[in-house]
Amino acid sequence: MEFFNRTGKMAIGSRLRLLTARLGDDVTQIHEAYGVGFSGKWFPVFFLLAEDGEGAITEMAKVIGHSAASVSKLVNEMTKSGLVEGIPGQVDKRRNVVRLTEKGRELAGKLREQWADVDAAVQGLMNEANHDLWAALEEWEHLLESKPLLRRVLEEKKRRESKDVRIVNYEPRYRKVFRDLNVEWISQWFRMEEADYKALDHPDEYIIARGGQILVALYQEKPVGVCALIRMDDP
Question: Is the pLDDT of residue 3 over 80?
């Protein structure tokens, strides 16, 4: 699509949502073609119940990567449709365990044939493609779990901004910013004392003339940080 050629890779979220929407539309039509009254969003929970027989909402949420509230909502929808029911006589009331009803089990039998056809169709699509999307998705999930996109973007931001940072030696024109930044930092974490005021008001005399050094960090030529190296007499 030309739009994504213009945006570049930063639009990956939009492109994946578009692909998901396209697949979602196909799934709806597939259910209609098979004469099955089933919502695609129910699939993860319904599949677990069909395979495992029963399941606790919190545990199923962990397996499929959804929130417990989201799974609970799906269970409620399927319960209203007569596909899912709670298991009576549960010992631990804190664990809401559910299972498929007889109607749900009958539907699962019909859906298994559909699932087999869908699985074969997806495999055929992957065979036609030059890249293995399924393997790529698994790899991306692992990479994003180890380092989320937010962290990666902030690292790039820091890397980009660092190119505009210069460290220069102190000059008299930086006297005010040297004082202001130090007063702000010391006041936030400690308490200003008389010796601090003397050194900050007369940095040439109290720091540089005594063998010390002052460095100033410039971001886009604007002073944003200072550092004073004070010479200490070795006892």
Answer: yes
